[in-house]
Amino acid sequence: MAALFCGMFEHQLDDKNRLRIPAKFKKGLTGEHGEKSYSFARGLNGCVYVFPEEVLEETIEELSNEKMGEASKASLLFLGSIYTAEEDAQGRVTLPSRLREMAGIKKDIITIGRGKRLEIWSAEKYNAYLSDTDYDEEFKKLGI
After folding, report:
1. Residues 6+ apart with CB under 8 A from 87
2. Domain boundaries, the chain
3. What is the mean predicted confidence (pLDDT) over 47-68?
């Protein structure tokens, strides 16, 4: 069963555009044999999705050929934006330049747990996205 992610962490890219996935989230990105197994993909609203391998496989399976036909451009954009993460010996990973540019990530980032996936946002884009949000109205939509 896939891990469920929640919480938010503010951190930064280093000088070589590498980041560390926050320790709280690392366990959920570990494969069956203890290896780190996850991928990056273009997300909605200018963020980068981080999928554990198991969740990415499920997501791609759900995009059946029939659904891909109805949303051909969407599947092309999504599937073409997937990059396998490769951690170095210190647990850092380079965020692909194409995704970094799309997300407007320069230095300050926010990583958020969103259920079965993580989202990486530039701090500026995240703050702008939520700047006029009425939290009470949004929470009402969740029914909590």
Report:
1. 36, 93
2. 8-142
3. 83
Q: CA-CA distance, 79 to 17, in Å (whole number)?
A: 23
CATH architecture for residues 8-142: 3-Layer(aba) Sandwich (3.40)
The beta-strand segments (E) located in the chain are 8-12, 18-20, 38-42, 48-52, 83-84, 92-94, 108-114, 117-122
Indicate the pTM of the whole model. Answer: 0.90
The alpha carbon of residue 14 and the mean position of all alpha carbons in its chain are separated, in whole angstroms, by 18
Nearest residue to 80 via CA among 39, 118, 117? 39
Q: For residue 86, give both structure tokens.
A: 């490769």
Average pLDDT value over all residues in the chain: 89
pLDDT in tens, 77-121: 888 999 999 999 998 999 999 999 999 999 999 999 999 999 999
